[in-house]
Amino acid sequence: MAGEEKIVIGLVGETGSGKDTVANHLKKRHRVNLFRFSYPLKQALGLFFDHPAKDDQAWLFDQFQKRFGEDILHRGLRRRIERADDKIICINGVRMPQDEALVRSYPNSVVIYVTAERELRWQRSFSRGEKSDDKQTLEAFTAFEEGTETERAVPEIGARADYKIENTEGLDQLLAKVDDVMEQVIAKS
């Protein structure tokens, strides 16, 4: 890496797009330290539920903002990034314009958009069954994406991303695309 500044990667994508797969590959292959905006929310809900639903996370996020200010998760994440010794950090789960602004506040930052068609993403979510609301109909999946604040901004942020990865093929193709993007990101830094 040419510079000494941290590379901060913002990973954005709709539910079922493959963000977690990309993030895990970045961690294993490229030694990237992973952070999530939603981690404190999942951790809190995990005290009470084995598989917290996304709408529960959205509700808790709303409550945190009302109580501690709109930037509560950003303040905490910025502290974690600044204390980290890692050269490359990935924030998985950029979902709001403020999330994008945090990523872009770092001079050596990049936003990567992972996406696929809605029906394919729904099929992936339905099949994995990780969250309590994964086994929903396509209509409910669509209503959630279109009706939830934390989901509506994703395509807009994706349109401004530095890199777009279409996850419509197999795993090997996805990971090859990620490696290509990382080569470019590292070469620019």
Structural topology:
Blueprint: E1 7-13, H1 19-30, E2 33-36, H2 39-46, H3 54-68, H4 72-83, E3 88-92, H5 97-104, E4 109-115, H6 118-128, H7 138-147, H8 149-152, H9 154-160, E5 163-166, H10 171-188
Parallel strand pairs: 1-3, 1-4, 2-3, 4-5
Helix pairs in contact: 1-10
Structural class by helix and strand composition: alpha/beta
Widest sheet: strand ordering: 2-3-1-4-5
Number of domains: 1
Report the sheet with the most strands, covering strand number, pairing sense and barrel closure.
Answer: 5 strands, parallel
CATH homologous superfamily classification: P-loop containing nucleotide triphosphate hydrolases
Low-confidence segments: none
On the 0-100 scale, what is the average pLDDT?
A: 89
Rg calculated over all Cα atoms: 16 Å
Strand content: 5-15%
Describe what this molecule looks like in 3D.
There is one protein chain. The protein is an alpha/beta fold and 189 residues long. The protein has a single domain (7-188), classed as Rossmann fold (3-Layer(aba) Sandwich). The protein is built from ten helices and five strands. It has a five-stranded parallel β-sheet with strand order 2-3-1-4-5, with helices on both faces. Helix 1 crosses helix 10. The longest helix has 18 residues, at 171-188. The model has no long low-confidence stretch (mean pLDDT 89).
Provide a quick synopsis of the model.
This protein is an alpha/beta fold. The chain contains ten helices and five strands; from the N terminus they run βαβαααβαβααααβα.
